[in-house]
Amino acid sequence: MTAGPEPHEVSADDLRYLLAVARVGRLVAAAALLGVDHTTVRRRLDRLEAALGARLLDRGADGWQLTETGRAIVEKAAPLEGIVEQVVAAASGGDAVRGTVRVAAPEGFGSLFAAPALARVRAEHPGIALELVTSTRPLSLRGSGFDLAVTVGSPAGARVRAELLTEYALRLYAAPSYLAARPAIRRLADLEGHDLVFYVDALLTVRELDLAAELEGMRLGFGSTNVFAQLEATRAGAGIGLLHAFMGEGAAGLTPVLPREVDFRLPFMLSTRPDSPAVDAVAIVRDALRAEVASRRGELLPPR
């Protein structure tokens, strides 16, 4: 029977390098986080794998991802960064919460809801560094690269703790000039033949957003993966946009179309990576996001 590694053979500092790669998913980004060259990160990871006698990372389509063994080790090693932050705080004579929290969110929600919430966290807790990454893509199955993530629908298969953050509405909007040049739209059947502004069907990776088929008779006239481009195209008269209500409602140059008949409700889920090292900081950011949506519920779900 092969003996396992001895504790003195494993460097705690090398574990910090593994934690950094687990956080950001890429060697270059981890190197920037640690203030070293990416070759140093690679060398430290090789040394750690040799000391433990196990492969900890695999290269995936979106960067480096933890193996089963790597994930188990990261979960055990996660408190190391928190301990270091506490030591730094103690040495400086303070007890403020410290740490880096990366939040992933869809671009619309991230820009209009997450950004102001994170700005307030930063003002109240200057020891917390914040990173906001916007994307509508599903979470990685291994759940690395973020501490908190807001997604449309549940992160199927991802090894994270997920909870409902809020529901939000998608409704139809059009430019007044677009509507004035066409017959009045008074019922669903009147939508037939109109151009739809929405996501690009072939590039849609979130099944909950596959809603174009629900609007029978409409054809996709302008597709974009960017919700702000959808908004501006609708405002410019490219068609009738199926837009986030928190972007379209009350927006200059837009008129609601059949708001009672077309009102899709989708969930924003909030996921937490279980091996996130900055536990206290993550809890503060999580509470800030929940407070933000609670105070602005009327924008997410405007009355019909």
Automatic annotation (TrEMBL):
<dbReference type="GO" id="GO:0006351">
    <property type="term" value="P:DNA-templated transcription"/>
</dbReference>
<feature type="domain" description="HTH lysR-type">
    <location>
        <begin position="10"/>
        <end position="67"/>
    </location>
</feature>
<dbReference type="InterPro" id="IPR000847">
    <property type="entry name" value="LysR_HTH_N"/>
</dbReference>
<dbReference type="Pfam" id="PF00126">
    <property type="entry name" value="HTH_1"/>
</dbReference>
<keyword id="KW-0805">Transcription regulation</keyword>
<dbReference type="InterPro" id="IPR036390">
    <property type="entry name" value="WH_DNA-bd_sf"/>
</dbReference>
<dbReference type="Pfam" id="PF03466">
    <property type="entry name" value="LysR_substrate"/>
</dbReference>
<comment type="similarity">
    <text>Belongs to the LysR transcriptional regulatory family.</text>
</comment>
<keyword id="KW-0238">DNA-binding</keyword>
<dbReference type="GO" id="GO:0003700">
    <property type="term" value="F:DNA-binding transcription factor activity"/>
</dbReference>
<protein>
    <submittedName>
        <fullName>DNA-binding transcriptional LysR family regulator</fullName>
    </submittedName>
</protein>
<keyword id="KW-0804">Transcription</keyword>
<dbReference type="GO" id="GO:0043565">
    <property type="term" value="F:sequence-specific DNA binding"/>
</dbReference>
<dbReference type="InterPro" id="IPR005119">
    <property type="entry name" value="LysR_subst-bd"/>
</dbReference>
<dbReference type="InterPro" id="IPR036388">
    <property type="entry name" value="WH-like_DNA-bd_sf"/>
</dbReference>
<dbReference type="InterPro" id="IPR058163">
    <property type="entry name" value="LysR-type_TF_proteobact-type"/>
</dbReference>
